[in-house]
Amino acid sequence: MEMHATGVSKGEWIFFAEFDRTASYLADLKRVLGFNPFCYNVELTDIENVYKWNFRVTDPQNNPFDIIFFVEQSEELQVELPDHIECADPDDLTEEMIKSYAIFKKVRWKHHPVGHKISDPKKYLFEGKVSGDMDIQRIDAKRTKVHFDLRVDVKFLLYPAFRIVPKRVVRTMVNGGMTFIMQTATNSMFHSMSKDFCKIQKI
């Protein structure tokens, strides 16, 4: 029996570091996801700004299986210039101006459809879809606030032992378990980043 599962994870953290350093660090998707205990590999595809995320988990029978996500990443940057600096065209902003006066950055992720089938249950291979964003906001010269919100949808095959349980009950159990695992992994991911920063505080 085929089953759709949805998991979500979210949270807010204070990075005790400059905005520019924090934003540059978090924009490095491969490095950030490398702290996720379930992330097996992240690679940039031949399509601009589209990444392939490969997550590997173990099922109840101790079989490792892979979930593949094709994810388009986009970024938006907000710069607040002081009154004495005039700049009507964003293209005229220098690197130094951006570094000094950027106050907010949004990183967005959305599913990128591919033209071929990915899932192959016989090989424990499944396709997932991702949507979410990460807001990075300057608080002051030494503190940056980060809001993280991610949703994952996965389609997989249910083991025969679960087929005697009503599908609605199984879906609730699976969604709850998936959200718990994702939230735990997200908390672990941000905690692991603290080795590269003076301090990261969950709020």
Q: So, the CATH homologous superfamily?
A: START domain
What portion of residues is helical?
10-25%
Largest β sheet strand count, sense and barrel closure: 8 strands, mixed
User: Oligomeric state of the chains?
Assistant: single chain
Give the overall shape: elongated
Mean pLDDT: 86
Kindly estimate the percentage of residues that lie in beta strands according to DSSP: 35-45%
Report what the structure shows.
This protein has 203 residues and is of the alpha+beta class. The chain has helices spanning 19-26, 29-33, 95-101, 167-193; strands spanning 2-15, 39-44, 50-58, 64-79, 102-111, 125-140, 143-157, 200-202. Strands 1, 2, 3, 4, 5, 6, 7 and 8 form an eight-stranded mixed β-sheet that branches. Strand 2 (39-44) and strand 3 (50-58) form a beta hairpin. The model has no long low-confidence stretch (mean pLDDT 86).
